[in-house]
Design brief:
Order of helices and strands of chain A: HHHHH
Strand content of chain B: 15-25%
Strand order of the largest sheet of chain B: 3-2-1-4-5
Shape of chain B: elongated
Oligomer: heterodimer
Largest sheet of chain A: none
Largest interface: A-B, 22 and 25 residues
Helix content of chain A: 40-55%
Helix content of chain B: 25-40%
Number of helices of chain A: 5
Structural class of chain B: alpha/beta
Order of helices and strands of chain B: HEHEHEHEEH
Distance between the termini of chain A: 73 Å
Number of helices of chain B: 5
Largest sheet of chain B: 5 strands, mixed
Radius of gyration of chain B: 22 Å
Strand content of chain A: under 5%
Number of strands of chain A: 0
Radius of gyration of chain A: 28 Å
Number of strands of chain B: 5
Chain lengths: ~160, ~180
Amino acid sequence: MSQPPSFPRNREPGKAKFWVAAFAGMTIMMLAPPVYADSNLPPAYWSDRALPDARQEAQAQELMNELRCLVCQGQSIADSDAELAGDMRDLVRRRIAAGEKPVAIRGWLVQRYGSWISYRPTAEPAAWPLWLAPLALLLIGAWMIRRRIRLKAKT
Amino acid sequence: MTRLGRFAPLIGLGIFLIAVIWRLATPMDTNVSSKLRNQPVPAFVLPPMVAGKPALASVDLATGQPHLVNVFASWCVPCITEVGVLGQLKTRGVAIDGIAVRDLPEDVADFLRQNGDPYERIGSDQRSQVQIALGSSGVPESFVVDSEGVIRYQHIGAIKTSDVGLILQKLEQAK
């Protein structure tokens, strides 16, 4: 039997202690809750609770993933921990439970906050470049290739 | 290659740099303004917030005189200084109503006792539902509602002493 490989022993116990302390310190800092200007009320009832009807909950989830949080702009209300996002999830779930169509709820919010609130790209004129860009790039590419082939044919 | 073609990458870089500098010089406005300006206040009925103070409903805002509707909270730090400025507006004859967002009666009572109470009515918006219905995205925010109950102006953030003139002007226009 061969000897088990010998690992170099840590000759500086002080160094190991330092790293243990640093790691513990960082862990504690991560556990500390960040300070928000939040209210003293608990989250709204339906903010973090699934609807009993699985089909309705799926509808709500789909819509909540496409609505932008007003506080943490760039997150969806499904992802955000902001209280206003929680209240918006509560609003979405209540309305869906009441039988309202997701498209109507989205429309109701767009009426208030503009298309900004919805992540789904619209067909309004401001979004036309977005839809036309791939087509334009394809055409430019085709034109460049055609030029290449012609130049090659000449030589 | 044509002469212009040779410079195309450089021109492209120039345009890119100008765009970047322009965006850095004028930072994006992250305020989300309500699209309900020049629209009637959405119908709502809120329960009272504090004892002895009437509640607020949308019908209370179409009374033949302009109203200033202040969306606030006792847990909102800028609201503390703002409520003092609202007191100044009140002495100038402005009708001020409050929507207290996600708040507790005792907290609001303390807030008013410590900082002054310019409100005629205060409604309790426990789940931010009226705040969302108004297209408001935070506290404090204020809406100038005209004599017929139509939203004419939205003020995002605290009303400062320097904004008093502007608010009075918007209220005058809303008569």
